[in-house]
Amino acid sequence: MRLSARNQIRGTVTHVEVGAVTTTVKVQLGGGDTVTSSITREAAEELGVEVGSEVTVVVKASDVLLAVD
């Protein structure tokens, strides 16, 4: 699958928390950082997301903010 989104990062699912409607998925990236994604329970089931799955985190946003102290 090809996407127009440029921010694509490979990682491994380390935690899946299934809720009534939303599933929270934690993905460990190659450098050790973790990204958390909230997707619908239905989407998680369709994708077969489970701990140990290799996934691609896709970030598509119209605004990306930075903050400094």
Automatic annotation (TrEMBL):
Pfam families associated with the record: TOBE
InterPro entries xref list: Mo/tungstate-bd_C_term_dom, Mop_domain, Transp-assoc_OB_typ1
Record keywords, A-Z: Molybdenum
Occurrences of domain Mop (ranges): 2-68
UniProt cross-references to PROSITE patterns, sorted A to Z: MOP
Record-given protein name: Molybdopterin-binding protein
Record organism: Nocardioides humi
